[in-house]
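Data availability (excerpt). All sequences and predicted token strings are deposited with the supplementary files. A representative entry, Glucose-6-phosphate 1-dehydrogenase, is shown inline so that the format can be inspected without opening the archive.
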Amino acid sequence: LMPERCDFTVFGGTGNLSLHKLLPALYHSELEGHLPDDTRIIGVSLTDLDDDAYRALVHDALLEQVGDLDDDTSERLLARLHHVRLDIEEAADWHNLYGLLKDRPEVESTVRVYYLAVAPTLFGPICRRLGDGGMTEAPARVVLEKPLGHDLASARAINAVVGEVFDESQIFRIDHYLGKESVQNLLVTRFANTLLEPLWNSHWIDHIQITVAETVGVGERVGYYDRAGAMRDMVQNHLLQLLCLVAMEPPIEVGREDVRDEKMKVLQALKPMTAVEIDRDIVRGRYAAGPVEGRQVKSYDEEVGRVSTGSTDEGLTETFVALKAEVQNWRWAGVPFYLRTGKRMDRRSSEIVVVFKEPPHDVFPHRTGVTAPNRLHIQVQPDEGMRLHLTAKEPGPGGYRLKPVSLDLNFASAFTQRSPDAYERLLMDVVKGNPTLFMRRDEVEAAWTWVDPIIQHWTESGLPPKRYAAGSAGPTTAITLIERDGRSWQEDS
Ligand code: BG6
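Structure token line:
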């Protein structure tokens, strides 16, 4: 249920995520009338800004991100904004923030949301201070942005500290992929239809591919990214979450703990990889210079080189990962999951491809033409859609001439509504206190448990990632990874 009153506090209020994602999402919620009437938005950062200067900064960001602003809406949103300059070490700064939070009517029934859009090392210290100030009583909620730690140990440590201050039901760990319309639609496709689920197993499915390809490079975020790499930045969270939604058993109901319970079982069933398997079944890449969307872009090496201090990079950070994973349970035994993600690739596309088995027996021994296995292609972004590849007879006399055809569902033409951005949906879920599309503590830790030994092995072996030209499909070894199994990456667009 939407509360009547809300104080939405964003730590890192002048940062990239706030200006590019959170405030535009709040703008759209305002436009649609989804924000509780009595809502304040408090940006917290180290910058010396008064409320008006912060409003001007946010206004510029909205103009850039949203474009054509509705004047009334932006005026209403900007009027809600406040800014508090805060140095985490400074008690006086914290007292300013406590003061502002307490300075409102009906303070007891106000839902306080603390969005921590800052480095994970600050999660613990910020929560402690909020606890010290008596600011964490329910209905307060805290939102933790990814990355949740750097590895299993740091994730556990963060979860433990945050857990001392907030109850698990107050903690919302964001993976914005779960807020994407197309990702939620995956649940509906699987569980609100009867057509697919009977085939959704190792009897009928040969393998599954999940690709999240980006054309962007690391850009301004090199300072963060260089200590992360694609495995931590994308695979540990977004790709494994997509895998969970594809592979999980039907939940009893969405909207309770069931979805998270079922995802958790998939994570637990992921086969841990041995050193030999890591070397054989995972390809790491790092982009070199090259043309992307008609423009020559710099190599990752050059981008890292620009950061004058603090880089720990020794040529080991990967910007691309392709891997073959296994889900060890009754449904999926023997069905490989091929995952890949990379920056500076030839196209921006996130897609899931379910490749079905060949018919068990060929009743057209004299056929001509071309056949291909049935394939369900789920386009997550940019253009949401679904395509089912079938085989048909080409009209004409002279026997069976076969040809692949496809059934197409394009969401933009099937639905006329605007597709809300992932953050819009998720922020309103936090305000309402609905945790279904957020990661539970055990899920985050299970994902790190699988990823940790892989990264550790890379660190120990010290082998550099393979270079790939920006604007390409990644290192050629990523193609070999799947082709040596007699399969190939399927791209529709
Ligand atoms: C973020 C990663 O979580 O997801 C970024 O940190 C990445 O590196 C982004 O670019 C991709 O999100 P989207 O929604 O653009 O696919």
